[in-house]
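Re: weekly structure request thread

Next one in the queue (406 aa):
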Amino acid sequence: MTLTAALRRPAALVAVVCLVEVLTMAGFAAYWSLLPVLQPAWQMSNAMAGWLSGAFFGGYVLAVPFLSAMTDRIDARHIVILGASLSALGLAGLALFASGFWSALPWRVIAGAGLAGSYMPGLKMLTDRLPQARHARAVAFYTASFSIGTALSYSLAGVALEWFGWRGAFLFTAAGPALSGLLLAVAVVSRSPEAAVEERRHVLDFRPVLRSRETMGYIIAYAGHGAELFAMRSWIVPFLVFCLGSCAGFELDATLFATVFALVSVVSSIAGAELALRIGRARLIAWVMLGTFGIGAAAGFSSPLPFAVAAFLCLLYSAAIQADSAALTAGAVATSPAGHRGATLAVHSVFGFSGSLFAPALVGLVLDLAAPLGGANAWGLAFLAMGSMALLSFFCALPFMLPRRR
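Done, posted below.
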């Protein structure tokens, strides 16, 4: 059996596309993993560090409407290869040319545009090649690969920092997206996108998506989910470093914990998707978003407690945030207007990652403003801010998810 024939099997195709996504994300969390070193080296306040984290998502939001929507017109495979190339370029630029906030800023934006070309277009590439009945589980595995890629990125950057310094760490992780583009070009064959039922006007015409009430419910909820998730991932390593600092004689690598948290999210995302098939997506999303607020608050105020307690609560928080990730994205895909799946994923991404642009900076601002209250209280308030993001979006999305009254 040839490689091309083997990859026509759904399981093999899902595995390869997920591997491509994991490799593309090898440098995704490198900045966050290296932040305890970069912040003093680049002389950044917490707010500046947050803005530089958010700049990545700024690049994503600027690029994703066009790149994702283009997948309704051309094979998404070509867009994913472009995204992988931009990711590698952004990481290499940070390694070679960044020396502070302003010199790092454009490379963070370019790296964000790379994710815009790889993540949702990769999902579109996958679902275009699978029958509708297989979409829900395929989406669950694909969104779980995002967490695997995040975990790999935390770990690779942390190890590479010890070996090569922070410049070498950025350059080392740039090899991942470069390899993913080569793998995709060799292993996945071209395929024309699905034809539209409703007339397409121009590539940025998102009106069919915006008119879909149920689709917009999932998208609005995803906005808060993304803001909370990436605020947490931006600051989890500094928080764990703070917790370790308050525990005399307890020396562990905070980056290792962040890696474990991201891996646990894989199980949580897949389990959440399976549970959503049984109890319904809207009910699962409600439980998760209400629950994560309480868990996040407990984690944020846990720094004075033994480190094992704080680490366990952070682990639980990370898992809880991801429990509705696949359900939110699968819901948007399942309810998308025919022929406009790429446009749906573009709107889904813009809403989901726009909050991520501001969320890390907002948390950094809370830390700066609350510093006079003491580190433990400042971190507690920062985690309350994280949890409030998803909670607010849930209440905004609820009217769209409820059945219409007749």
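DSSP finds 16 helices and no strands in the chain. The mean pLDDT is 82.
Next request, please.
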